[in-house]
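# step 3/5: fold
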Amino acid sequence: MAKDAIPTSRLRRSSQVGRLAATQAAKQMGTRATNVARSDEGKQRALAKRQLETAEQIVAALGTMKGAAMKLGQVMSFLDVGLVPEEYREEFQAKLAELRDAAPKVSFKDMKKVIEGEYGKPIEDVFETFDPVPIAAASIGQVYKAKLDDGRDVAVKVQYPGVALAVKADMQNLGMILRLMKRVAPGLDAKALGAEIRERIDEELDYELEAQNQRTLARIFRGHPFIDVPEVVTSLSHEKVVVSQFVAGRGFEELKQLPQEERDRIGEIVFRFYFGCMYRHHQFSGDPHPGNSLLLDDGRMAFLDFGLFKRIPAAVAEFELESARIGIAGDGEALIAHLHRGGFIGRPEYYTGEGILEQFHDLTWWYTVDEEIALTPEIATEVMIQLSDPRSTHFAKMRHETLPPDHLFGRRLEMLTLAVMAQLRARGNWHRIAREWIYGDEPDTELGRQEAQFYAAHPPAAVTRG
């Protein structure tokens, strides 16, 4: 089999992952045995080394799979939840960034068959020109640059051949991948993460649905002063191919090197786009990672990739906003009652007003405290730990909590948006910005004033589904 082919056999793919899991289990058992004769410092150093080796094995495994499992790698690539010790973190981040930005390629010969199979005609009859060298790779496809007969440059996202079968195999193997991940992240809720991926992966395989999602947001943000969602070419978007306006810009690794003031501005745009979509428009991309945005030459941020997408009822958004208002007001008893009514808390007697406010603060302080916050990866790590990790000071209470399905993707968006902003080390009074959707306040920043003018001319309620 050619080296760029996707292994779709569950047996073959299981053996790849199973060998990794078995190898790491043996290594860690050996490390523990050897540690009996080591000093405390030596023990920590040896375990740290094994932890890094396991993390690198995960990167290698995810990088070869190209299906749903690789999605985990993309999330891990910018969300630092203490996967590796501090001294190895930068090296591990770099390896994961390579996975995010340079996914394995499939030959153009095979990709061309997918394109021509979707259109039922030769590729030259559809596009004026088509560059066979991919410009980007997504978790389940590759992106190419082409030109239409009318002169427009377009991005053509094409699904890997056989990826649907590969994804189904990944779904069977997901448990093994997650067990590998638990070796370096013991607090990982593998069951919840696996259920989330299984639920949404079928939608990601349908590029016609993705085109509809993108078309909706492109309509919402058409003419926006600092947010751009590329327009979709509907007539050329099929189940395995989606065609949209081509945009060129600077990627995330370059953005992290910009001066502080520019990173602050980008952080605010990222915050406004993801949180604003959820609370203003009640529909949002569920995948806010750095590879899905570009800084354009005119200063706008372009947001890409809407395969993982969520729509929520207005009542769900309002419930979350009311939770924020009660928490900010400091009324712990009212917050317990509110969360109980919403299905988050089953046994309110386990909670105190003071305790629930401490938990609320630990999860939301970065945008509910009225002060300038300089975000860092360490802040994102701590918030994630407090949300879901056994190291959380609230973990005992969490056993009595649930997360209703309609709120699951909102919490994911919140955490991953924080992670992106933290990687930028953006500064800002995020609370003053959030007050625009929490309370309907007038904007406090220049970007906010520009956006307010835009929405005055384009009321969000007037936007319909694309």
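# step 4/5: annotate
Confidence is low (pLDDT under 50) at residues 10-18, 20-38, 77-83, 462-466.
# step 5/5: archive (pending)
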